[in-house]
Design brief:
The chain is mainly alpha-helical. The chain is built from ten helices and no strands.
């Protein structure tokens, strides 16, 4: 089994990284494909953190997320309006996208990615039908997923490596790190709502 072969997470990561460009290329290819068929992005981030560590895991997750988001957007815009409408027509948020103007597109994408209110894959297809240009969509996606990706990749490495052999490896310091990272993700996700409340109060 895997556990007797690799005594700790760092040794496993060294073996993965020793494969050269093959390992990240395979991960990026599979993660991109799986995100496009609605596999949860958080699950793929956990795998990326354990396999590549927090730093390189963040790099490969961001690349695969941007590729999946771009391809899904272009597929919906080029070929799939009927399919996208048939798939998401029961979701109340879907028809709200038609009201988006070109100027507000970046901020709509940014806030939806930060708040995670819509599934990453579903939103990528749906945004392809909205009045948003590709540049605004890609920049909104990148800046929207960046904070949560960094925090979650760090958490996945810390938690995954701590539990590699047995739960007793989970130290009090590790628990504090996970709690802090979770609170940070929660705060980041609430930012769009807090800004909206503050804006409404000014009015």
């Amino acid at each position: 089994t895997m556990i007797p072969i690799f005594q700790d997470c760092q040794q496993f990561q060294q073996v993965i990284l020793a494969q050269g460009v093959l390992a990240p290329l395979m991960y990026v290819f599979l993660a991109t494909l799986l995100m496009m068929v609605f596999i949860p992005r958080s699950f793929l981030m956990l795998i990326g953190g354990v396999c590549f560590g927090a730093w390189w895991g963040t790099v490969w997750v961001l690349i695969s997320s941007m590729l999946a988001g771009c391809f899904s957007f272009l597929v919906a815009r080029t070929f799939g309006r009927a399919w996208v409408e048939r798939t998401f027509r029961k979701r109340h948020w879907f028809y709200q996208l038609e009201k988006i103007t070109g100027n507000s597109g970046f901020y709509v994408v940014l806030t939806s990615r930060i708040a995670h209110v819509i599934h990453f894959g579903a939103a990528s297809y749906a945004f392809g039908l909205a009045n948003i240009n590709l540049k605004s969509y890609l920049w909104g996606t990148f800046w929207g997923i960046l904070p949560g990706t960094v925090v979650l990749l760090y958490s996945s490495q810390v938690l995954g490596c701590s539990l590699w052999l047995r739960p007793e490896n989970l130290s009090l310091e590790t628990i504090y790190r996970i709690v802090f990272a979770s609170l940070l993700v929660f705060f980041i996700s609430c930012l769009p709502w807090l800004l909206k409340v503050k804006k409404s109060q000014r009015k």
